[in-house]
């Protein structure tokens, strides 16, 4: 079995925390009636309809105005597809589930459907090195499929971000500020592949999702198979540890959004992290929101961890002082992939990413566009 390996010299290797989600699926039925999910996936023989349902074929972000016919790329514009199965964050969806017998068969059949519907597309399956030996048999079976290539990368964050993974994997420049569809690349999560198989097998709408529970706030760290539209509070009532005040985070500890109890599970939710609010976990990490903010001490930690070689504290100071001009763009602010490593490492608890996002938005307002400032490379840190 010959697997390509791609080097990633930057990034940060997280220690895997306790309370990882197990590769064990249980059915969950909420006690209250779930309204019909507005984002359920309906069957269509046109594969582009499926990709569109996840926003994978967009030319621009959904909030950017375009004529309807220009919003999505055409089928013949897709040249490569990346299936991201890396596990590089402190909490991640357990990819082992896609290599276990029943789910593995669904996953492989989903890959076959993709190749049948998009014969011109080269499919790249990306794993971390340590996953390879665990699933050698199934990976060999996947590699026997025509037009499917398996590549491994080092388990360092943020290699899972498309702005880094695509240039490293495919040796292509990423169009900063635009979806990857603009360069003919579609990046998919593995659950989308198994759902594709179920959709074509049953020819019925998909109105369920698999959501993994991770973090110290849950009684059991399982994967729930539940209806789309399920309220988060239904899950917390059944699985949250008693007398715990928690912060619930969707999909990523580093970049995910905070969930409220009234929020609902949508088709883009695959991981629900529960952190005990305002306390220290077994690693001595204070997981209270931000903590007291202090003045920048120019320690350089944010610069050391930045995977694209920026100086986040310098960008922050420019924005805070109102120096939003061409100089800020020349400092490559548009190269920021918003991975949050600078915030994570800042001892002063400064919201560096908040300032960077604000600076990019203000530059756009004065018509200094991100399209003129492309990702040049990755700095070793």
Task: Please tell me about this protein's structure.
By secondary structure, the chain is an alpha/beta fold. It has two domains: 1-289, no CATH class; 301-372, no CATH class. The chain contains twelve helices and eleven strands.
Number of domains: 2
The assigned structural class equals alpha/beta
Tell me the number of strands. 11
Q: Can you write the helix and strand succession as a string?
A: EEHEHEHHEHEHEEHEEEHHHHH
Approximate shape: globular
**N-end to C-end Cα span:** 32 Å
Radius of gyration: 21 Å
Topology, please?
Layout: E1 4-6, E2 25-27, H1 47-53, E3 80-84, H2 101-117, E4 122-128, H3 129-132, H4 136-143, E5 148-153, H5 162-170, E6 185-188, H6 190-202, E7 208-214, E8 223-227, H7 232-239, E9 246-250, E10 258-259, E11 271-276, H8 301-305, H9 312-320, H10 326-330, H11 341-345, H12 352-365
Parallel strand pairs: 1-5, 2-8, 3-4, 3-6, 4-5, 7-11
Antiparallel strand pairs: 7-8, 9-10, 9-11
Helix pairs in contact: 2-6, 9-12
Name a few traits of the molecule.
single chain, 381 residues, alpha/beta, 2 domains, six-stranded mixed beta sheet, five-stranded parallel beta sheet, 12 helices, 27% helix, globular
